[in-house]
Amino acid sequence: QIRKMLSSGVCTSTVQLPGKVAVVTGANTGIGKETAKELAKRGARVYLACRDVQKGESVAREIQNMTGNQQVLVRKLDLADTKSIRAFAKGFLAEEKHLHILINNAGVMMCPYSKTADGFETHIGVNHLGHFLLTHLLLEKLKESAPSRVVNVSSLAHHMGRIHFHNLQGEKFYHAGLAYCNSKLANVLFTQELARRLKGSGVTTYSVHPGTVDSELVRHSSLLRWIWWLFSFFIKTPQQGAQTSLYCALTEGLEVLSGNHFSDCHVAWVSAQARNETVARRLWDVSCDLLGIPMD
Length: 296
Ligand SMILES: NC(=O)C1=CN([C@@H]2O[C@H](COP(=O)(O)OP(=O)(O)OC[C@H]3O[C@@H](n4cnc5c(N)ncnc54)[C@H](OP(=O)(O)O)[C@@H]3O)[C@@H](O)[C@H]2O)C=CC1
Ligand SMILES: CC1=C(/C=C/C(C)=C/C=C/C(C)=C/C=O)C(C)(C)CCC1
Hints:
By secondary structure, the chain is α/β, with parallel strands linked by helices. The protein is built from ten helices and eight strands. Helices cover 43% and strands 13% of the residues.
């Protein structure tokens, strides 16, 4: 009851999804798994984009059994490796005619300093650049499938983030907590810039704070694991944490709010830097440059 009281925000949309195609990154556990389960329940063909295919397969079976929807498919996606992202996109584009819902959900938090296969700091590399490249590669398909949506799972933690263009890879200064916050700010800025660029295309996009959710996200921090355990009554379940992503993916009439940030199924306030169009545009250009994507 206490948990229910403190975790407001329920997606009440009754939209059903037969014939629709969805991709959820990091769908083998936590918020992503619950998001994928609900999309499957509503009849969508759901791709679980996971770095660990074995974990993904066992979750796919669980979702198939629970929902009766056999169209739950697992594909390998390691967001810490642009080759893997390109291979995922190539495979997906070859096998699917449409993409209606892309949920950029996967994330890492507070890992010790490390680099992705392409030499990006892991938080910015996985949480921002990986999803930036994935979205770029799937964008034509999303446009062809319009109306379609991109949901970027960010965090309230973006409020403490800053985009330091001179230290984007954390080489001059690194703090695991701040690196996470910076990458979540990048998610909000990306959403806003994407919304501006997609105006009139029928593709809309939203960033989300899912709430404080009991998941494996705290795996790298014993302090947070302890806080999570201590306050477990106040923390959302992954199913509750999935509600705002589902709200943004499903709610009819939300198109006019493209680019906005949502929490507890409502529009939420973002930090001053998150509203800075110049920073958003520069981050877009720098991201293209780092990923070898032509700037337009
Ligand atoms: N939990 C919370 O309180 C909050 C969560 N969020 C955000 O919600 C999102 C989901 O997190 P949550 O469910 O809590 O955390 P979990 O750690 O439970 O799930 C994260 C998912 O991301 C996947 N992932 C991590 N790295 C990669 C990678 N390189 N390539 C592909 N997938 C990867 C994980 O895969 P694997 O299992 O193989 O590691 C896992 O499936 C994240 O973006 C997080 O920042 C935001 C605010 C609060
Ligand atoms: C102190 C305190 C809490 C701690 C909250 C924290 C530490 C939240 C961190 C959120 C993160 C890391 C979000 C990820 O994006 C709880 C559990 C709400 C219970 C009330 C007291």
